[in-house]
Design goal:
Blueprint lengths: L10 H5 L12 E9 L3 H12 L4 E4 L8 H4 L3 E2 L8 H8 L1 H12 L1 H11 L11 E4 L6 H13 L4 E5 H8 L6 E5 L3 E2 L2 H14 L3 E3 L6 E5 L2 E6 L2 E10 L17 E10 L4 H4 L8 E3 L7 E4 L5 E5 L9 H15 L9 E11 L6 E6 L2 E5 L5 H16 L11 E3 L10 H20 L8
Parallel strand pairs: 1-2, 1-11, 2-8, 4-13, 11-18, 17-19
Antiparallel strand pairs: 3-7, 4-6, 5-6, 9-10, 10-11, 12-15, 12-16, 13-14, 14-15, 17-18
Helix pairs in contact: 2-9, 2-12, 4-5, 6-12
The structure holds flavin-adenine dinucleotide.
Amino acid sequence: MTDFSPFEPSLWYATACEAPQTQPLNKEITCDVCIVGAGYTGLTTAIELSRRGVVVSVVEAREAGFGGSGRNAGHCTPTFAFLSLDQVRGHLGAERARRLIARQTGGADLAADYIRTYQISCEWKQNGFFQGILCPSQRAGLEAKCNAYAAAGCPSEMVDAAEAQRLTGSPRFLGGWMLRSGGHLNPLGYARGLARAAMQEGARLFTDSPMQELVREGSRWRVRTPGGSVLADRVIVATGAYTQGGGTGVERSYRILRALIAATNPLPAEARRRIVPFDGTMHDGRGDIFVYKYDAAGRIVASMFPMGRRGRDLDYTRELFMDRLRWLHPDLPADTRWDFYWSGELDMQRHTIPRLYDLGPGAVACTGLSGRGVPTGTMLGGILADWAQGTAEPDLALPVEPLRSAPAYMAIAPTMMLRWYRFRDRLAARRNGSALPPHA
Ligand SMILES: Cc1cc2nc3c(=O)[nH]c(=O)nc-3n(C[C@H](O)[C@H](O)[C@H](O)COP(=O)(O)OP(=O)(O)OC[C@H]3O[C@@H](n4cnc5c(N)ncnc54)[C@H](O)[C@@H]3O)c2cc1C
């Protein structure tokens, strides 16, 4: 069983709006659709189904947003994390990929729509996503990506060095990719707001109610929790990387990859006018990524993946994060420090697009959101609601696949991939005569 990172140390736990009042399930109830897991996927599905008049219950092991949805870095970048659009087409076929790409690239606008409709207090800003070019050989690949998203109808453009410096305040970039639809937010605030919205639409949410067992009962399913059970026509297991118990075997379909996040003290307004003045998502452009943004109080929230000592040795990790940030922004105030540090778990699939797994007649599981869960979990509600209402499988934006265990090589593949990316970064910098950040 996975030993999950603690929930409480995150910045979001300290600053998010309050969770709605909820109780554990303490009796036997019936409904049309039972959703297991109150992250973005489960909650947007509950909203969409409730809006369509379907009677929905959500059972959550801990609290709304306890999983990745409440502790992520807060970027809402409506792209695919590891696959190109052509690779998505290759996996899904042209027609299905067209539907999924439209939903994924619309994920940030849909989040904005939920936030507006339900007045969710979650520090939402939609000022764009910037990915930098640190050495000349990165340009062609990034341009191809930019063009692919532009061709898919996204507000996607390349910017030159002067514009990159104007947007980011960093003297390091030779240019970059700007995706104007990108947004960022307080992720736990968003999850709690979605929970409140689902309840407002009529869904019932039971917290501290882990599914212990899913059993077929006639033509329906019974979801058993310690205090009661839900009898439902359809069941959606949306437990992601935080799947625990339940007996469905969903956790065998992926491997966990940890991600690290740190947040500074609030920067003074004068520094914020110099450092990332466009106030969007920053991606430093390296394969061994360093991604950052502001929170509402002006703290910089930065994230990386663990590698070697990074993630194991706390002092070293804090120092590395600060050196990286200062390398990109030499004018960072001298008294900047990391006030918060936390980590969380991602579910890595062989193909990092969301996956729907068949658990039996009328039951599916959904995983594979990886590092794009904010837009992906937001848009999945529509797809899962379509599935629950009986849309034929070929007409869904995702296929429903048999539940398979992740291949054995996935035990090391994500870590090897990160090491390969770092090697590639070093090689590119050496070949181009470009500077490398500290600890690279
Ligand atoms: C450190 C980190 C940084 C990230 N950064 C970003 C980012 O910046 N942008 C981005 O888009 N994505 C990011 N992600 C990914 C994103 O957070 C996830 O992909 C997304 O939140 C997954 O949402 P979900 O609803 O599918 O699952 P989760 O949010 O993980 O929710 C699953 C829920 O199921 C519950 N559960 C588990 N087992 C049971 C059970 N037996 N019964 C009942 N309930 C159960 C859990 O308690 C949990 O609340 C990051 C993830 C991490 C960990």
